[in-house]
Amino acid sequence: MPNERLRDALMRNGLTLDQVARAVNVDPKTVERWITKERTPYPKHRHKIAAMTRESESYLWPQAIPPERKAETAAAEVVRVFPHRNAIPVELWDRLIDDAESTVEILVHAALFLVERPRFVKDLAGKAENGAKVRLLFGDPDGGSVALRSEEEQLGVGTLAARIRNALAYYRPLQGVEGVDMRFHNTTLYNSIFRFDDEMIINTHVYGFQGAHAPSLHLRRLSAGDLFETYSESFESAWNLSRPATF
Predict the structure, then answer these.
(1) Which of 63, 113, 134, 144 sits at 20 to 30 Å (Cα–Cα) from 107?
(2) Which DSSP helix (H) or strand (E) runs through 106?
(3) DSSP for residue 41
(4) pLDDT tens, N- to C-terminus, the chain (247 residues)
(5) Domains of the chain by range and CATH?
């Protein structure tokens, strides 16, 4: 069975079989077999290719990483745990936003706290203009999941939907900006995800609590890690079920 993840990762990064072969010092036919025959490279080769493609080893070769190593690496991916999202230092948010160069992915309901930062929307536009891929995924204000969450967080009928529409007003300048894609989701939001290149803030959600008062994780991606990749794939799943945002 072909390794389509590896094939896609090489194509997205413009890497040919010859280039990969030279980088890891093997024959191009060996690289071809890694793709077409789903052969598993040696660990040193996996690590090099993962770095070249900016993907994790566990994503490119899910069965190659022993469970005990995955567990150890997952623990190392957790930089810090915060008891509440509003306990995350302003300086950390500023650094993550400022340092992002290639990827900004946000999965939320409204996240009004982000647009309270005066330059946030302008910064996103600037990053997109410099080649970053910005994907923003908001709760569908007309969707059933938003209505249910508003009730669960004891916000009152229609409160969360109104909060989302309020947030969208701030994002209006990003409409039509190349590199920025904004969509609505109607999924159950188990976690809010804020990805900035190879770092993430995961705001877990707890029944009966608003997001600001729920715990948060600061993650940093590691090549052999599985935790960062799990949340990244969760974002993709929600994205694939979303629709274009309407203002």
Answers:
(1) 63
(2) strand 103-107
(3) P
(4) 788 888 888 888 888 988 888 998 988 889 888 988 878 888 888 888 888 888 878 788 877 766 666 666 667 899 999 999 999 999 999 999 999 999 999 999 998 899 988 899 999 999 999 999 999 999 999 988 988 888 777 777 778 888 899 999 999 999 999 999 999 999 999 999 999 999 999 999 888 788 889 999 999 988 767 889 899 999 999 999 999 998 7
(5) 4-64 (1.10.260.40), 74-244 (3.30.870.10)
